[in-house]
Sequence to fold (184 residues):
Amino acid sequence: MRRDGEKLGNPIAVAMAETGEGMLLMLRDTNPAAAIPLLQSAIAALEKIPIPDVASRIRRALSQAFKESGDRESALKELRIAHDVFARLGSAGELENVRDEIRILGSRPPPRISAEGMGGLTGRELEIARMVASRKSNREIGDALDISARTVSTHLSNIFAKLGVGSRGELTDFIRESSLQQES
Fold:
C-alpha cells in the first residue's frame, strides 16, 4: 500500500500504510518504540491535508505506544491534543474515549470545550465560577452574593453545561487555565 500510495502521490494512502505498519509493530511485534515514528509521520501527513478526525484517532494509538514505552507525559500530551480536536469537532463518543484514557493515566481530563466557551457565561455565572475556583462552598458564595445556596447550585448547573465540565474540580482547572481566576 505504501509503495502504491507513493507511486500515485497519494498522501492518505501513505499515511494509512504507516499507521498499519505502526500498529503491527505495536500489537503483533510488541515493539511500541518502533511504532512511534511511523504513527507520528502518519499524523503529520493527515494534519497537513487536513484530516484532523483520523489524525486524532491515530494520536490515541500513538499515546498507547508512548505509554507502553514508559513515557507517560508524551502519552498525556497526545491525548490532550486529541481531546482538543474531538471537542472542536463535536465528536462526543471519541471525546469520552479520550477522557477515559486520560483518567486511566491518572490525570484529570481538560474541560470538554475550549476557552471560547467562557464567552457564553453571564456576569453572575463568571463571578460564581471564580468563587468556586477560590474554593468557596455554595453557602459561602450565596452569602457573599446575597442569594440562596440553591440558587448557586442552579447557576453551577448552568455553568457546567455551558463549559462542558462535570465537576467543581474541572471548573476550577478551566478557570485557572483560562487565566480568569481573579479580576485585577
